[in-house]
Amino acid sequence: MRFFLITKFILLLPLFSNEDLITKSVFHSKNSNKNSVLVTKNPTEETDYEDESEEEELSAGHLGEEKGRSKGTKSSSRPGIPSSNSDLKKIESEISPEKRKEMTIEGLKNLEILEEKATPSAVRQISRYLLSHPIPEVRARAAKSLGKLGRGLRSLHKAIDTDGYQVRQEAYQAIEKIGHRQSLKYFINGTKSTDVDIRIASYKGLGKTRSSIGREILIKQGLTSPDHSIVAASLIGLGYFSRKEDIELFKKYLDSEVTEIKSAAILALGISKVSSTTNFLLRYYETSPNMEPDIIHALSQKKNLATTLALIKIMNLSKNENYQGMIQKELYLRRAFGNYAIVKTNTATIRKFHKASAEKVAILKKGDIAKIRKATEKLYKAKMYQEIMEDRYYLIQFIPPSENSVKNQILKGWVFGPKIEILNLVPPAKQKLSPQKKVTTLSDESENYDEDSEEEIDNTPPAKKEIIPNKKEIPPQDSEFYDEDEDE
Questions:
Q1: CA 379/CA 72 separation, integer angstroms
Q2: Which domains does the chain have, with CATH numbers?
Q3: Using alpha carbons only, what angle is made at residue 457 by residues 452 and 461, rounded to the nearest 5 degrees?
Q4: pLDDT of res. 74
Q5: What is the DSSP letter of 219?
């Protein structure tokens, strides 16, 4: 039977021509794959939106690609990434000066827009600019943008591996700003570079990784370098380790005759999270007023109540309007709005309760700063300088002036009004702070603008206070205390 069927098929085969067999085969293939044809009929309809926007941003002459090129797949919608710097140079050499200028302006403008967006899609597009744009100025600007955004570490590493001088410089400074441990090997290699800017960025970056091998390089190679810039960068790098044993090392370099090294030691003290550094920088300011801008910059590295009070104290003592402006800008950035007390008597005893005979908490000296939390609704009387003074008590928060105080210790207590001057710091849109003109009224509004946590904010509205020259004319109100104050 089987033999009969095979024989029959062989006999019928000559009746069909080769063309018929091909036609039937193709027809059968189309029917069998009908579903797959319908699915892949128009792949451009399913193109991701981010890829379309990226194509628009990157189509500005990238590797000579035409704007009208179709986007069949994702790989065809993006410019290829050159494998080496020689490929980029070859492409760059083929561009006319007019076209180069046009591409540079357009590329820098696009990067500025993408940097403002700061979205994940924008970061990806900036990375494409870094790795594929033919103009080195644009690639360098892309590396700088990634450093500001703190993203695109892998792309920056690839640029360091494949790109040239200008881009590698910016890429190293970008990964130093990011300061991730994944960049450790690049920082180690960078310390051996012939380019001083790359070496400086590498020594600073080693500190941000907080690795044991990085610390060893900073101490054994960085601090012993004959180059002052490398020594300064190594001091700044050591500041990120925040170790107590490094504080004495930083103090030692404050005696250096090289200004760059001295400034780096001050900044290292500001970067370090050791609590005693804030009070030390304040004392150093009193003995070295010529280093005022460096001390302001160092204190601005820490965002806590202690440094806020220290900055206000320097602003109150400073005679330079530019430095006062620097501090005001920093206070606005950290939203340190509210009411502050400046001690105007030689000493001011801070007490546990609002009473002249209450238990002592601490003693502040003239010029010390504290944060005002609230004031008593009642007026109190106390004897000061052989006179009866009448005023409110103010609840304040302050940092103990002792260098050996407990880390992050914040004390609070009550101080009698005549011993302090009130400084009201409000947002710039409402009032511009003038350090020479002290505002002497408590603002209920300013309680909403405070740098501290909500747990520290007292919701009791402070009473309004106005300093009147002749306090004896104020009639007595409520309870009155005629205890003699000891701070005179």
A1: 80
A2: 99-178 (1.25.10), 339-484 (no CATH)
A3: 140
A4: 41
A5: I
Which sign, positive or negative, has the C-alpha torsion 327, 332, 335, 337?
A: positive
Residue 126's nearest CA partner among 100, 151, 105, 101 is: 151
With H, G, I as helix, E, B as strand and everything else as coil, classify residue 187. Answer: helix
Please, which residues have CB within 8 angstroms of residue 2's CB and are 6 or more apart in sequence? none
Among 307, 304, 296, 303, residue whose Cα is nearest residue 267: 296
List, for residues 46-99, the tens digit of each pLDDT value. 333 333 333 333 333 343 333 333 333 343 334 455 555 566 666 666 788 899
Q: Which stretches does DSSP call E strand in 185-234?
A: none
User: pLDDT tens digits, residue range 270-299?
Assistant: 999 998 899 899 999 999 999 999 999 999
**Angle, vertex CA 253, rays to CA 250 and CA 258, nearest 5:** 140
Using DSSP's 3-state secondary structure scheme, residue 304 falls into: coil
3-state DSSP call for residue 393?
strand
- Report which residue type is found at 12: L
Quote the CA–CA distance of 60 and 103 in Å, as a whole number: 7
* DSSP state at residue 110: H
* pTM summary value: 0.69
DSSP E strand boundaries for 112-253:
none
How many angstroms separate the CA atoms of 57 and 49, rounded?
13
205 CB contacts (<8 Å, ≥6 apart)?
172, 175, 176, 179, 183, 186, 187, 190, 237
- Largest Cα–Cα distance of the chain, in whole Å? 137
